[in-house]
Input
Amino acid sequence: MTAASHKDFVLAEHASNPAIASLLAWKQEALVDAIWDRSELTFTIAPDDIRQAAKIVQTAGYNFLEDVTAVDWYPSEPRFQISYHIVSHAMKQRVRLRAFLPGDNPVIDSITPVWPSANFYEREVFDLFGVRFAGHPNLRRIMMPDEWEGHPLRKDYPVEGYR
Amino acid sequence: MTEFVSTGSLLEPHIVEGSGDTTMVLNMGPQHPSTHGVLRLVIEIDGETVLKVVPDIGYLHTGIEKTCEAKFYQQVVPMTDRIDYLSPMSNNLCYCLAVEKLLELEIPPKAQWMRVLLNELTRLNSHLIWLGTHALDIGALTMFLYTFREREEILRIFEHVSGQRMMGSYFRIGGLALEPPFDFFDRVQALIKILPEKIDEYENLLTGNPIWGGRLKGVGYLSAADGIALGVTGPPLRASGVDFDLRRDMPYSSYDKFQFKVPVSNDCDVWARYIVRIEEMRESVKICQQALDGMPEGPIKADAPKVVLPDREKMKTEMEALIYHFKIVTEGFAVPAGEVYQAIESPRGEMGYYVVSDGTAKPYRVHMRNPSFATLQALQTMCEGRLIADVVAVIGSIDIVLGEIDR
Output
């Protein structure tokens, strides 16, 4: 099954899902892809739309942000994948939003205005991956010392350190 | 990059306009006994009143997520113990469930029930330490000796079953490491028989105690809306009136077969968190009893020879088993590409493992969502405008473990 037909299949299969309904009603092109894999629903969102998409998903009933993290797909492009896991306390369901960012100058909108709890998570992603979050209130290193050079969880950062 | 990074001091002293008075910035930790590890707090105070609390973390950062990327899937299990040294079995379970979800493995019922039993013992272990140290911070020294007495027996049971007191690494991808030893169930039965009266004993010492009540009641207020906005999970969120427990609402590892209540309180303060955790301990004892009574018979490992190590006896007598053993140990097992997020209810709240596979024998990315990390963000909301002595009570009530915050 090709990617495009898989997306249509997932959207048709989960048409009653409130997040899908509201995302499609808001902006069809923001929802780049939808995946149903191992009983988990994943939406790929255009990076420029992530804050608004988070707001829409929150309004659709997914009220609790569990986690924000990143995956480095170096050396392929787009290099960085930012994953957001959001759960609904009422529906007892989870969705994953993800956005892909290029390797040079990775910047994405912070979702702290939607969920203040994203603060620490985004600082962690900034610290360990070097992805910057526009509009973050306090984007400083959180794990590594302030004067540290490099971002340890990047794939081109060796486990043993630079040589 | 500079426009995003400020490298000044954590907190500039804040001058109240017109009063001519300045506030004081106080450094607490990282070597402070009440911060349960190496948490550093920069606190801005006006007299005895807290204006601002800024946590500074990372002193225990060991790069476990990075190390995991260089290990085979089965070699990551002992790393997960080290994240949270008070609830190692919860970490084991969460990681194993995540990889099993990637592999789409079916786990035999006995292994699932054993996992539930050991996880509830872990919860008791963790809550006992929380109760002892929380009381110690507030000045009730006796409690610590009482709770460590019972905790010692739990650790002996862990040692009996896994060979290690704290870092058990007893769970494996696909089941358990070993059959439980022959008198394991008797020892657990003996322990959980006495635990309810021990919990009564703790409550006798604390619940009616006016000093304990005075230090806890009305302190560290956190509304349900704030708790959700700030990522608080587990007992602190349930103490704010949000009735959500992953064991009941999104069951894993056959928790749906157990009957238990989820304690919830609407008081939103440190006292409510104390009551919720005490009640959770009582419910954990009930779950342990149900697990002992209904423990199914059968294998403890999944029937997946390419993933699960064969029994020792088989390995020595059957050629095929020997080959599988050799291959798993030397080159691991390939996991189909994909990404999963598995969340469980750890003693401190929602613990989640995000595992990304690229189809090889080593995880492409392992990320741990740890409850303490997010809960720490709520410290400012809970302490603002309160007395500085309450900060210690609030830290105790959210039950942080710095190992899992820094990873």
About this structure: Residues 248 and 256 of chain B are 7 Å apart (CA to CA). The two ends of chain B are 26 Å apart (CA to CA). Chain B is about 45% helix and 10% strand. Residues 2-56 of chain B form one domain.
